[in-house]
Amino acid sequence: MKIVERIEELNRLLSEIDGKASPKRDLAVKFFLEHIFHLWRAGTEDQSYVDAFVERSLPVIKNRRIDFYISGAFKLQSYINQEFVGNQWTTMCLRRSHIEAFNELYGDFIGIKKFIDTDELDQDIRDKAEYEALKMPDLKPKGLPEGHWWWELD
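RESULT FIELD:
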């Protein structure tokens, strides 16, 4: 998906997020975080498009910050607390990377390091890794920075 197409999809999701509370809004937040991750990874292609989108979307993001916290950190926390089967470790890593991308894109615009606080979440990931980590390097998205350490736990 090209950056322009991804931004169009993010704009559509943003209008759902800005609406009334509903299961549809919760799902829109989840998909928004996924698309932000891909936009963040592709951002170097044309950072001006990415920066313009982030700046335009910031008022909605600030107003719905709790929704992003719930859909991002809280749901990931619930996910971590269950026993993993199959490649669920990879799913957890991907969800954590979605949050990191969101923090990196939006944190710069509002002047805080973490839009969604992840300290407790990260400790729980480290604790879980002691007995359940499953390193699957072929499933790790290419081009992730070293700061995405959760992909390297085993």
